[in-house]
Amino acid sequence: MTQALPKIVNFDEFIAWYPENSGVRYELHNGEIVEMSQPKGKHEKVKGFLSRKLSVEFDRLNLPYFIPNQAIVKPPERESGYFPDVLILNDSALTSEPLWEQYSTVTNGASIPLVVEVVSTNWRDDYYLKLADYEEMGIPEYWVADYAGLGARKFIGNPKQPTFSIYKLIDGEYQVTQFRGSDKIQSPTFPELNLTVEQIFAGSISIL
Known about the structure:
This protein is an alpha+beta fold. The chain has a single domain, classed as tt1808, chain A (Alpha-Beta Complex). Helices cover about 25% and strands about 25% of the residues. The protein has six helices and eleven strands. It has helices at about 10-15, 40-60, 100-105, 125-135, 155, 195-200; strands at about 5-10, 25-30, 30-35, 65, 70-75, 85-90, 105, 115-120, 140-145, 165-170, 175-180. The strands form three sheets. The chain has a six-stranded mixed β-sheet with strand order 4-6-8-9-10-11, with helices on both faces. It has a three-stranded antiparallel β-sheet with strand order 1-3-2, with no helix packed on it. Strands 5-7 form a two-stranded parallel sheet.
């Protein structure tokens, strides 16, 4: 479980406070510093698999994208800062990011073609908090990889099952398409990406 630390801070205070090389990851949620739980092996495998496949795809298309090792997404007008599991940035847009060079922080949806969260015990953050903030920022595509089917039934259906949700921004609002089992995901940003949900959640293509 995530653990909320009691002190309420603004984003500048959070950045100044953030401990380096502590081995612990923190996020800022509406002024609360939150200690994130240690990722499980399956979580990291899914994250690593998606990072690898996406990197191959945007390299193949010769797009000016990259996946930073660690960067913060800060919603404007909110004292929050998130470390997404997979964050694709548009290098050509970073010149318009005032916090990028000093703090590795992005605030503009135009800088982020795609953001991915791999669901763990903090599923409410991914389906409630970050979904709303990423939508408000105007991030065009948001993936939620719920490999254990942890999200609420109103998000992933009943009965609950492993679900891969792709949220596409249409007229300022996210519209969701969901995929399960042997479904091949359909990404507006990467329409030629050839991956099934089973492959993603196994972190491997060897199951075929």
